[in-house]
Amino acid sequence: MNGGKEDREFQQLIHFPSFSSLEIFFIQPPGTVHAPYSPENVLMSGTFHWSSRDMATITEKAFFSARYPETTNEPQTKEYKKKLEIIDSAWVSKTGGVQWSSEEDMLTFRDWHKKLKTCKPYAAKRNKKRR
Fold first, then answer.
1. Residue 96's CB: how many other CB atoms inside 10 A?
2. Three-state SS string across the chain, please?
3. Residue 47's pLDDT is what?
4. Of 50, 71, 109, 111, which one has the greatest count of Cβ atoms within 10 A?
5. What is the pLDDT of residue 16?
6. Is 65 inside any structural domain?
7. pLDDT tens profile 80-123
């Protein structure tokens, strides 16, 4: 980006959806916890991408989303816990072919991950399934 008019327009789109007659785009800042809404009869509803260098922040936000479920329109997916376990293991062993963040960030991630596993709404759902 060169700092021109196009850059300023792109910066405005980061926080606001852009509408056209055929499609809807919504570009969110990194680390934003959200649940996408997809209209019926679409070819592709969207994807999630997590940065390995931003996992501490993402997990912190996920904790608050789980702790206060009324702040989101969708519960955490059943795969979420397992994905975080895989990420935790890969980060500790420095595997996965990605650039991991600092050791300090890893400790922060692991702390939030531990809190997420034991927060009441999250734990209540998990324990309920075990019965």
1. 13
2. CCCCHHHHHHHHHCCCCEECCCCEECCCCCCCCCCCCCCCCCCCCCCCCCCCCCHHHHHHHHHHHHHCHHHCCCCCCCCHHHHHHHHHHHHHHCCCCCCCCCHHHHHHHHHHHHHHHHCHHHHHHHHHHHC
3. 56
4. 109
5. 44
6. yes
7. 888 889 889 988 898 877 788 899 999 999 999 999 888 876 44
Q: How many domains does the chain contain in total? A: 1
98: domain range? Answer: 55-130
From residue 123, alpha-carbon distances to 50, 57, 112, 119, 130 in Å are 23, 21, 14, 6, 11
Average pLDDT on 62-84 reads: 79
Structure tokens that stand for 38 in this block: 């997809």
**CB atoms near residue 66 (< 10 Å):** 23
C-alpha count within 13 angstroms, C-beta hemisphere, residue 35? 13
74 falls within a domain = yes
